[in-house]
Sequence to fold (1298 residues):
Amino acid sequence: MIHSLFLINNAGDLFLEKHWKSVISRSVCDYFFEAREKAVEPDNVPPVIRTPHHYLINIYREKIFFVSVIQTEVPPLFVIEFLHRVAETFQDYFGECSETTIKDNVVIVYELLEEMLDNGFPLATESNILKELIRPPTILRSMVNTITGSSNVGETLPTGQLSNIPWRRAGVKYTNNEAYFDVVEEIDAILDKSGTTVFAEIQGVIDACVKLSGMPDLTLSFMNPRLLDDVSFHPCVRYKRWESERVISFIPPDGNFQLMSYHISAQNLVAIPIYVKQNISFFETGSSGRLDIAVGPKQTMGKTVECLVVTVHMPKVVLSANLSATQGTYNYDPVTKILLWDIGKLNPQKLPNLKGSLSLQSGAPKPEENPSLNIDLKIQQLAISGLKVNRLDMYGEKYKPFKGVKYVTKAGKFQQRLSEWLLVHTEV
Amino acid sequence: LKVINCCVWDPSGEIFELKAELNSDKKEKKKEAVKKVIASMTVGKDVSALFPDVVNCMQTDNLELKKLVYLYLMNYAKSQPDMAIMAVNTFVKDCEDPNPLIRALAVRTMGCIRVDKITEYLCEPLRKCLKDEDPYVRKTAAVCVAKLHDINAQLVEDQGFLDTLKDLISDSNPMVVANAVAALSEIAESHPNSNLLDLNPQTINKLLTALNECTEWGQIFILDCLANYMPCDDRESQSICERVTPRLSHANSAVVLSAVKVLMKFMEMLPKDLDYYGTLLKKLAPPLVTLLSAEAELQYVALRNINLIVQKRPEILKHEMKVFFVKYNDPIYVKLEKLDIMIRLASQANIAQVLAELKEYATEVDVDFVRKAVRAIGRCAIKVEQSAERCVSTLLDLIQTKVNYVVQEAIVVIKDIFRKYPNKYESVIATLCENLDSLDEPEARAAMIWIVGEYAERIDNADELLESFLEGFHDESAQVQLQLLTAIVKLFLKKPTETQELVQQVLSLATQDSDNPDLRDRGYIYWRLLSTDPVAAKEVVLAEKPLISEETDLIEPTLLEELICHIGTLASVYHKPPSAFVEGSRGVQHKRLPARMGAGLGVAPAAMPASLGGAPAVGGGLGDLFDLGGGVGMPTGSYVAPKTVWLLAIKAKGLEISGTFARRGGIIQMDLSLTNKAMSVMTDFAVQFNRNSFGLAPAGPMQVLTPLSPNQTIDVSLPLSMSGPVMKMEPLNNLQVAVKNNIDVFYFSCQYPLSLLFVEDGRFYRQVFLATWKDIPNDSEAQFQIKDIHLNSDVASNKLQGSNIFTIAKRTVEGQDMLYQSIKLTNGIWVLAEMRIQTGNPNYTKTNGFRDCMQKQMYDSTSVVRFSSK
Fold:
């Protein structure tokens, strides 16, 4: 099972270690540092690293490497899932998962890690249970604590821990009973240079915020459940009912949780909300080029595209860019070779355009690498797949809750390949 | 290497201050002080000097303070064992606390204190906690058994904790069940043969029930445990599959992959024409695709496993090619894995798409990835014949880009395409030759030189081209030098008149000025060949080459089967059997996929998998035994089966191995024929066996003294000893062999006839034969009928003696000859047999009893005894 955990920042400083069995010397991390060096980019460090006596399984989140050490055969996915859970718990407790917050709350971090694993076996990883065992720090409570001397550790066994519904504590009480569901869809797509879809799919999640008293039993149904190709549920969902009736029936955890995630891969269903037209050329005579990018709406279902950002990864030979944008701001980072154009809201009446000249390394030939373009966007009140929640019913409790469903579509890994550099012969 | 940031701890001030605070009367101050100590500890500062002061804070009713002190204790008890004893009393007291949280905490912490002296005190509280009324305490105690086992295994066994743990598998609380399974699995890893997790239909049912109700982590433990079970029949297999399938919709990807493992393994038993089989196949694809939208690290592990799954069952994901298309911002480790799977899924139906993608990748920024993409195009050409032409033209387009490393990779793969499809694409040679000057990598230069030599007759200026390489001959790498030598000799044989000078030049460079023995030898051989017999030289040098294999990178089938049983584990990430690398798991059992039952075959007992596979062999083997063609009346010596192919050349980069086993004069020999079907010389042969049922091992190194040239075969006899490590294999006579040469290591498995193990002094004492025979319990007996043998008992007896099966006594009762026989195996096991032969009836009845006289231990009666004699 999981033996030890080391947290290492981007500069290579090891700033926290935790051992669940015997202590393993931190020198084992030298193998990690070696791999880190070799990978150049932090994203490229291989997740599983073999050393003579141990295996290092690591994830990279929020500029921190979570490096775990294992000694015997353990499913690597189990370890990786757990590490992500640790990062999420920190995020949940401290608002963000960063070196500073971890260092500021080092004792709580330690208590949490101790509670999450016992001898390397996961113990309590549900946020609801952890919060009963160890209360998250709040400014108010730390003030109260200093005055009254009370503690941030729960004194009793979490009620949910052993019931049939371990994710929910008993005796929940609210004056306002509410249940909100956010249907969030991300489009993952690769478009070729002409804008035709090479590959597209939708990753959707339904995030819930349920604040209901007692033991509510909820049923959520869709207008069009057959759209979904694959679904993964929170443990609270009764799978049999989904199988037979295509409804989601569950007793919810208290507070925020992810009810389900789903996947739609049938390509014809994936609408592409915008188009990008681009033109990039190379002047044979001088060390310069031209860039012209225009963006416009495609299938937006009548909604507005917001938070539109276009990122272009330029070839190494591009030294600087002198462009003008009809909307938004642009920035070219000559070190990372990334051109970032923050457009904002897409106005269909006045299409944004970015054009101008690029200066290239002198004497460089026409670049062979084609730039690649990533798109970020957001569309409110739309699930691009067309998925619609039909109704939400509550059983088991008498009160009438306030219910709400929100839809939003975002770009996930949304990229368009750019056409080759156009060679322009200029007459001298 | 980065220097780890070390904090310098100033012992003078801070420790002193903390000490004072820890001993303060005020509770709050104490707690704050302990917090400070813990904070220092987490960043790696040494605060062990405060041990007694911190332990003093332990007796408190403040739970938070208690937890903090426990945290500290776990960290430092090892370095201060004597001090740690001070804490024992409090622990024991806390184990009786009315609050289950405190009871559990105490037993949990005690298990983490890895000090021998403490473990003695732990036993009693642990025993109580294992039977605690509160399941929270029980589940914590279950894990504690695993902890204790890690510290002192003997103690755990002596105290009977393993049995209590086994009982917990039937606990009413699913979380307790899951933890008991997890603890047992961990303990079992250090005792591979201990049968700790004795799985039977009842326990399986309990596990399946708990599976639905326990936490996600518990589900992983249970699924991994289920995967070790061998269902009795296809019906049981199907019902387990049905109950596991809902786990595919779990949000935790580790649960999903463990469920995939169980399904992949058990569906092996389902008849293919069953509707459910098809349904299950369809259900597997979507969750696998979904795994690819998770975080990059999860994707990586998923992809490594999918790589195995598409090799075993390509039909699952054959329509999902597009999800493996590479995205610009995928980490490099994900990109490379996706590329590999794309090639595996490439087929005539989707090749156009794949090629368009690969071409796109070839213009990316990452050099490693680009190279792999170009190679992938070549692999497509070799894999999908219909696409070869398109692949070649794509490669030509890429060569036109003139990007140096792209051109070089393209030339390397075009060489392979020429090998696979001779006389088809030579029209592109001219284009290749244009890029001769830009090649600076040995592999690309060697490939280009090979092409020029191979097609010298079609290249007008082949001599000029090769000559240009010759100028810097000594600066080239060995690979290029060898290739250049061969190419020029080929050229000379094709165009002898114009190239005499050139060939002399290269031969003298190779033989006189080179330090490389391989090069010198090859030079001399060519020289002699050319000077003595040019016709023979032509036959040798310009011989037709064997075609290269379609897919050289497929995983060997038995290894693939084993890896499928290990889906989701480290083994599946490294594509190596767990025995090859997991430390501390001595004698890992090799897992095999279950055998498929015939659709109408119905039920077969689960406990006898070996007999299932082996039963027909008994009849067949005995049939051979009484072959009429053999000499009559004389012991003929042990039968040696003809050699069969054990390792195919396409799976071993051109090395073909066939072989058989023989017993000659009491010595066991493995007779091997090694054939080199590759292009290059093979040297440095070595052989090794995996652990096996009877401890067979090579008695000495394999004697292959001369290098093995292409198309050459040599016979080797390898004497075997019985002194190797023992592990029970299935089937019992299975032997896994690794053969190494200068190219790679290859694995294959073969089965030896059990008669190999019958020793020459296998004559049992006549006086005690009958008594021993009667002592053998019925369940150690097996009976077979041997059909269609037209031999009388004397001839049969003589023939059997050749294989060291001795007739001890004979009597005739009512026209039936009864032969009483004995066999002794190399490991001291005796097998006694009674053979009844009815004169005129070609069917014999043979009853075997197994008895191990040495160890008074009954021999596994499911094993197959196979008699072969001619």
